[in-house]
Amino acid sequence: MSFQVKIPQNTTLSIKTDLAGKIVSVNEDLLRFSEFELNELLGQSFQKIQHPETPESIYINIQKTLKSNEPWNGFLKNQTKSGNYFWANTTITPYYDTEGNTLGYMYVIRSASERQITEGERFYLNPETIEAGFSLNPQKILYKFKIKTKLLFVFGLMAILMLVLGINLILIKNQEYEGAFNRLKGAEYNLSLAKLMRLTAKHRGFMARVLSGDLTAKEGAVAIEKELEVAFKVFLDLNETEGNRFQVYELSIEIFKNWNHLRDINANLTTKESYKEHVSLIKKMLNVNNEVGESSGLFLDPDKDTYFMIDVSLTKLPYLAEKLGQLRGTGLAYLVKGVNADPSEKNLIQEIMGSVLGHFESIAVSMSSITKFNPDSKTIVDAYKHAEGDFPSLRELIQSRIIKEKIPTVKPLEYYNATTNLVDQIFNVNELISKQLSEKFTERANLAKNSARAILVLTSVTLVLLVILQYLIIQSIMSVIRNSTNIISQIVRGSGELKENLDYGINDEIGGLLKWMGVFILNITEIVFVLRQVSGELSDKSKGAASLVRNYSVTTQDQAASTEETSAATEELAASVENVFVSISAQADHLKEIEKVTLDFKMAMSEVPNAMMAMTNLTEEFYKKANDGMLTTKDTADSIYVVNKKAELIDEVVIIINEISERTNLLALNASIEAARAGELGRGFAVVAQEIGKLAEQTALNTRNIQSLTTDTKDAIKTSVGLMKNTEESFLDLLNNISKIQETAKLVRIAQDKQTSDTNRIVESVHRINENSLQILSAASQERIAVEEISKSIETIATGTQVIADNSLVLLETAKDIEVTGEHLQTVVETYKY
What we know:
Layout: E1 13-18, E2 23-26, H1 28-34, H2 38-41, H3 56-67, E3 72-79, E4 85-96, E5 102-111, H4 114-125, H5 127-132, H6 138-143, H7 147-211, H8 218-242, H9 249-265, H10 271-295, H11 304-315, H12 317-337, H13 344-373, H14 378-403, H15 412-493, H16 509-575, H17 580-678, H18 683-778, H19 783-830
Antiparallel strand pairs: 1-2, 1-5, 3-4, 4-5
Helix pairs in contact: 7-8, 7-10, 7-12, 7-15, 8-9, 9-10, 10-12, 11-13, 11-15, 12-13, 12-15, 13-14, 14-15, 16-17, 16-19, 17-18, 18-19
């Protein structure tokens, strides 16, 4: 059964792989935490420590990200050798050689938070659903897209809104154009109807005279019929194009048929019958007039300059003209009858007079509105006032010479001319109004059409400008981001220099970020400069120490070989005591060589403490410089912390300024109120109060800008503190490694001291052997005892030599480690150029 274990806080596990994903190195923390041996991981895939439940989609995502030469960051479930598992916040980044070529990938593993562990477990249980799931969180949705895509979306949305607005305005103007065009055609249609009604009314009057026995009117009736024929032709042509639009096509055709029928039978009708037929025809024309007014939208026209004209033209003047026509026909019939006329007909005439008077009064009110909203309506108003001025004369004529007289004294022709003149004036006014309406609707339609065209052009130009602006803004933002990213990536790869400038002279948020990144790079430059000096010295010294230890190791190996030869010689000496005198001379020479070798070895050993002392001084110097670098980093972090505190003080000052601004604004408002109460005397004070209020508003606006900039500054400071902590951790690791080197140097020093002691013993032993050889020459009887002593000494020499050889190998491995560490540090530092 597996259990979850957690990576200790402030612990970083690291793995390096080649481009194929094979592990090439790991740090001690990972070996200790994962329980694997180094040889169990080297050459293996990184997936060896991955948990079997890791979804394939994660590996695909990692490969896709790394192939694009971008760092990958996420949460991975790993396993230890014993089968336990642990969640890790993992960052995978490429690492490069000095030429900027990718050598492999660095896996940096840190502990994960509880929230990250919960999200990771949920994802591992159902990766497909979560990967394909839709999130309603706007931030998560926006984080999926690049900045360019977001900007394109915003500008595209603005363009669509602008296009929709333009199309909507064009449609509105098109509706206005269609409405004005319909009203224009309706006004033209009603103008044609007005002419027909005027001519029909005149024809009614002439036929009333003709049928009453006035043959002089026949010529006029024929002339009117010809005018009617021409007017009907125009009317029918207009009906063919616009009749169906206004749903009066059939009614208009019926009017024309009724007129033809009336013209054919008119001569055979009585005066009254002719009068009724004409009235019926004019009523149908009025009905068509109303239908056209409704279907063309004339009655719904909202503009005041045309509303009252339409009302007068469609609903008042035609009915007034018709009433005057009825007055003319009724009066003529009464006058023609003479003494045979029925007195009750006077009442009908008076009734029609009253209706005409009511129409004049109603139209007078509308004419005042027309005058108010139409400064160019003088011709219409003057024509109507002229007709209105002639009506009292006609009324006086009717009252004094028809109503009050038992036998009317007015002649039919005089009466006809008076009434006809008034009818013609009313129809003339109606035609003038219809013409002006046509002109207004024509102007309105043209204005709507031109406005639609202008809106189309303006929308097109705005869209083009918006596209250009979008391109320029996106290019300005993306060029800065791309250049900055390229510079930083080149610095990381080693192909760029730390002295690259990230200040592009821009004053927006990106410019502020780049300025602080430039400051950070300057700080890193200083650290890299110090590390380069230290690493160079360490590398050179470590190489010298490695060479010295390598020579020392060779010497000890030679000494061991010599000791073995000496041991063999002593065995031969012990085996052949009888031949001691024969070989004593050769033995003496051999002992001299041994003494010389031991002296050389002693001299070599005397150089070792100096080398070790130089290496110790070097490591202490390096330790001091690394410690100074760490202290510098801490001082920098402390400075940033002080800056953060001062930024918080700025927030407090901003709050105080906001309070002062609000109080100033309230004071300005109270001053404005008091100035208003003071009336004329407070006008100057009111101006001052208004300026104070504006100053307070501007102060509040600037304060909010300062607060926003302070917030951005604190966020940047937090990021800098995190980076400085990472640098401090790196220095701590470096100090730990230097401490290990110092401990190894101590072990080497102890071994060297022991070796020196053994060497002294060897020299002393060789010296004793030499003395013994002299004693052998003088005292052969003690040869057996000397041989035994020599054998014991040789054993001691062999043991000491073997210890020295073993210690030299340890010292050689330590020197190699120091050399590798120095070279690695030198490689890392040389990645950054300045």
